[in-house]
Amino acid sequence: MAEHRINHHHHIEPPAVEHAEAVVPSDLDEYLFDLQGFLHLPGELSPAEFAGGNALIDAIPRDLPRGGWHGWVQRENHPEHRGISYQQVDELGGVFECGSIR
Asked: What are 8-21's pLDDT values in tens digits?
């Protein structure tokens, strides 16, 4: 019986960059995003925007229980030794709103 092999050539081209000044993430950037869930973009926020974002996070009660909700933002339900992190912070508004970063 003949062996059948199917060769799939699934190569996805990166999207076209519409703005010449846009920075295309490196392989390391993509890896770190997958690992950490965020990118560090130095200088992307003004000091006032940065302070506004901190104020929005600081308004979430520190005693919010794991899995608890503050409006539409949920504290992640993971062990305390991992620190505190939140889901859906874009719901806080301000600098966190999708598309608000330049």
From this structure: 566 777 667 677 67
